[in-house]
Amino acid sequence: MKRFATLLILSVIILGGSSFKTKRRAHAEQFKNDGYVQVIVDGRILDLRDDNKYTADLVNKSSDLPFNNTPGAKITRVANSLNFYGADFRDEDGNTFTEGINFEYTFAEGALGDAADGRITLNYNNQRFNNIAGETKFRITKIQWSSDRRYFVMDAEFECKMRRWGKPLAAQPMLKIKGQLENITVTVPSWVVLKNPTSVAEK
User: Fold this and answer.
1) CA distances from 198 to 98, 104, 140 (A)
2) pLDDT at residue 118, as a whole number
3) What is the pLDDT at residue 202?
4) Is residue 86 a contact partner of residue 47, using CB atoms and an 8 Å limit?
5) What CA–CA distance (Å, rounded) separates 58 from 104?
6) Which of 2, 94, 138, 159 has its CB 3.0 to 4.6 Å from that of 115, i.e. a possible disulfide?
7) Cα–Cα–Cα angle for 56, 57, 63, rounded to 5 degrees
8) CB < 8 Å & 24+ apart, contacts of 48-51
9) pTM over 0.85
10) 16-20, 28-32, 34-38, 103-107: which range is least confident on average?
């Protein structure tokens, strides 16, 4: 009886460990390591990870805004969400802070040029900064589609002024960033519907 109980406990431990590994592996597959990104913050290079470097996906975004003068209607758009991760730090209270930078803009069916509705968030030096709308440039310079249209590879360049979140806003510290993205692979999930995904040649 004791032998059976021991075998049963060992089986549960092995199955539990396998399940944990599977979950970790599935989570890790969301991250990507190809491509190149450079971010310069006030003249200093932001150090980013060499492994599990970024996630990049098209997403459906909606907001409760009036559309065609219809109160309560929702405007839905497809956005490109790019998240690049840096080093982890712990503060004096033991809280983990991950440096990195996030980009989001309305995806205009593969068009090159200046992105619309661009938002940039920077986590840096244990602080969070947001781009200043009138001081932001994010320009897509290349998009190459896969044959099945389930992903594309992109290049972009950016430059903006950012301000730390806080009140009063005008008194918060400001910094400048610039940089470039090269050969970043963006996944197009099956639930994201594109009207006319076309292959765009590199400029």
Assistant:
1) 36, 21, 15
2) 87
3) 40
4) yes
5) 10
6) 138
7) 125
8) 48/84, 48/85, 48/86, 48/100, 49/85, 49/86, 49/87
9) no
10) 16-20
Domain ranges of the chain: 1-30, 33-187
Cα separation values, 21 from 15, 69, 152, Å: 10, 51, 29
Q: How far is CA 58 from the centre of its chain?
A: 10
How many residues are given for the chain? 203
The pLDDT tens digits for 108-129 are 877 899 998 889 999 998 889 9
* Rounded-to-integer distance, Cα 197 and Cα 188, Å: 11
In this structure, are residues 130 and 165 in contact, taking their beta carbons and an 8 Å threshold?
Answer: yes
Q: In the predicted model, is pLDDT for residue 142 greater than 80?
A: yes
Is residue 67 very low, low, confident or very high in pLDDT (cuts 50, 70, 90)?
very low
